[in-house]
Amino acid sequence: MLRRIAVSLLAALLAALLLVGVCGCTPADNGNNDSSDAGSANNIDATSGTGDADDAGDAEQTTDDRELIVVESGWSASNRSSDGTFNILAAAVLHNPRNQPVYAVLVSAVAKNEYGSTIAESQFGMRYIDAGDTMATCTEYWFEKDDPIPTSVDISVTSFSTEDPYDYYGPVLNSKDIVFSNVSFVEDGDPCPMIVGTLSNNTPYDFNGVVIAVYKDSGGNVVGGTGTAATINNLAASESTDFELWSTGYGAPPEWSTYELYFGD
Fold first, then answer.
1. Which residues contact 116 (CB under 8 A, 6 or more apart)?
2. DSSP E strands: which ranges in the chain?
3. What percent of the chain is modeled with pLDDT above 70?
């Protein structure tokens, strides 16, 4: 029932946004490897990130022109492999302060060198964010042996729509509808360390989706996300399923301490 999909680069992402969706997810687990509280679905507090606390929490505001808030974001670079190549893991947690969903959200991660010149750019995102909800998305992209390791990666929202294109996306799910439980980190997983657990669909809909993780260092800073996603296929309403999430496609970020699980449709 589960299969693993790579977080897409730009070409795959654009196709995924139009056809099957991307790795954008709603929050559920604080990722401290404590399975006793790993199952509580909860929104990340938008006031704790880089956004404006008044904008993020003002339930009385009824205008629809507020921008999405990047609650927190971050990246890390892997060590160079034997052939000199390396990869970048980047992730962003976004909050929608509007009173209606937004769709086809695109995020850009622009890698720069020490002089501020752009080395590479990856675009990724999610199919939607419900009104007042918080979701996450991540990407993994590769550099050649002659490329310099970036000194910075600028992560920002580049575009989104206020209308569902062609009424394609169907029911918009909120993080309160998803529950994770029995979550743990398996260091000796095969073929790599993995995060395992159970996902419960507390909605009246049958749906497909993915599970990702956002990594943080000991200081609570985002250092990227999983380079792969666990795919959930045809999970029936009010049913549960087990999942296995590879830590990343090719190893976890160099420095990480905790993770947070997110679910996306």
1. none
2. 2-6, 24-29, 69-77, 86-95, 102-112, 118-129, 134-143, 152-161, 178-186, 194-201, 207-216, 222-225, 228-235, 240-246, 258-264
3. 72
Task: Say what the pTM is.
Answer: 0.75
3 state SS of 142: strand
Q: How far apart are CA 13 and CA 34, in angstroms?
A: 33
Give which of 175, 189, 201, 177 is closest to 226, Cα–Cα: 189
Report d(CA 126, CA 207) in Å as an integer: 16
Neighbour tally for 150: CB within 10 Å: 21
What are the chain's domains? 2-176+211-230 (2.60.40.10)
Is residue 116 left, alpha or beta, with left meaning phi > 0 and alpha meaning psi from -120 to 50?
A: left
Judge whether residue 45 has pLDDT over 50: no
Q: How do residues 154-208 score in pLDDT, each as one tens digit?
A: 999 999 999 887 676 678 888 888 899 999 998 877 777 889 999 999 999 887 8
The DSSP bridge partners found for residue 122 are 109
Distance CA 167, CA 43 (A): 26
pLDDT tens digit sequence for 84-97: 999 899 999 999 99
